[in-house]
Design a protein that fits this description.
Elements (H helix, E strand, L loop, with lengths): L2 H27 L15 E9 L2 H6 L4 E10 L5 E4 L11 E4 L4 H37 L1
Helix pairs in contact: 1-3
């Protein structure tokens, strides 16, 4: 295994978690948006992440270790929350209001997980850097 592949894995993880945090921030900022350009309430978004094979590791470890790739952003198809609010301008004729399918607890939990995974990837980068510096130091001796 070379150091560059290790850095690529950590970098792909950093990018994916940063993108996840961006999407979570968008969800949280639209938690009360009842009317969008499409006409309905805001629909929660999620990122789709897939494994990305890195072939060099299969030779060294006998198994394939993978990085990650953000495939895209999709909308959550769970139903909207319905609340009775007849005074709201977006309420239907029965006084029911469709609110976004964004749950504050779920989003904050996902943000905490993304932050922790991001921090783990930063630590992996730091460890790789320390190993490179130690290898250079040994090579000079």
């Amino acid at each position: 295994m070379n150091f560059m592949e290790s850095l690529k894995i950590s970098a792909s993880g950093l990018f994916a978690q940063r993108k996840r945090m961006d999407v979570i921030a968008e969800n949280l900022s639209n938690i009360e948006t009842t009317r969008t350009e499409k006409g309905g309430p805001y629909r929660r978004k999620m990122i789709v992440v897939s494994a990305e094979p890195i072939d060099d590791f299969s030779e060294v470890l006998g198994s394939q270790i993978e990085g990650v790739r953000v495939e895209g952003i999709v909308e959550d198809k769970t139903p909207f929350k319905i609340v009775h609010n007849p005074g709201h301008p977006d309420a239907d004729k029965d006084g029911n209001l469709s609110k976004p399918n964004v749950d504050l607890v779920v989003e904050m939990t996902n943000m905490t997980i993304a932050r922790n995974v991001y921090a783990a990837n930063v630590q992996a980068l730091k460890s790789t850097r320390q190993m490179v510096l130690k290898a250079l130091e040994i090579g000079r001796a």
